[in-house]
Amino acid sequence: MDFSNTYLFDQQYGLAVKAIDPDNRIIYTSLPFLAIKEKKILEMKAEEMRILYVAMTRAKERLILVGSVKNWEKTRDEWCEIGHLSEQSMLPEYLRARAKNYLDWIGPAVARHECFASFHNGKYNVISHPSKWMISAIPNETFLNTFSQKDDSILDDTSQQPVDENILYELKKRFTAKYPFEHSTKKKSKTSVTEIKRIENLQREEEQDEWIPESHESNQQKNTTVIKRPMFLQQKSLSSTEMGTA
């Protein structure tokens, strides 16, 4: 949602606008605007929390969560301190409201689990829970070194191999090929029934407006008068039986 607009609308609380000073040409954030803005932010976070719940409850056997932080030691200490501010099973509402990403919800909750005790050396109390977690903190250098070694080995292997001319020709042919139905890409992929009906009506109107000159043969057919045959030609001829009995 864009909060940079000068107004916000809520179905329950109505409209909230920013205060405008026309003399000094300054826009102030009004209290109603702040209230509705905060309400909208909480609603968006509630929806994100619902999505996270659905994602974490669909796994049947194992769930793997991957995240990244800038400073692991600092983030770890914050999780431990935040997670143990409340001894209840659920984190306080104000902590859930100020979260900026999914790790801000998952981290403090998992930091109170007994599987996280190895990261704080028993400094904080743990909460017993039947769930099982396996947490690993891997530095970025591990991935960077692994990828660089793999890239070097791949380049060394490919540089030693000869190039097949047939494969090279096929690659050039495929990369320089043109799509044979390029004109179809400029058409709409979906067309409503109303749009199809409108096009048909336009075509009918164009056909009615067109003047088609009549051919000479059609004029002759129109001017041709059908004359009846004489009465004696219209009389019924004798049948074979009548001719035999005459």
TrEMBL record:
Residues 234-246 have a biased composition (Polar residues). Residues 203-246 are annotated as: Disordered. GO terms for molecular function: ATP binding; DNA binding; exonuclease activity; helicase activity. One of its GO terms (biological process) is DNA repair. InterPro entries: P-loop_NTPase, PDDEXK-like_dom_sf. Gene3D superfamilies: 3.90.320.10, P-loop containing nucleotide triphosphate hydrolases. This is Uncharacterized protein. It comes from Rhizophagus irregularis. The lineage of its organism: Eukaryota, Fungi, Fungi incertae sedis, Mucoromycota, Glomeromycotina.
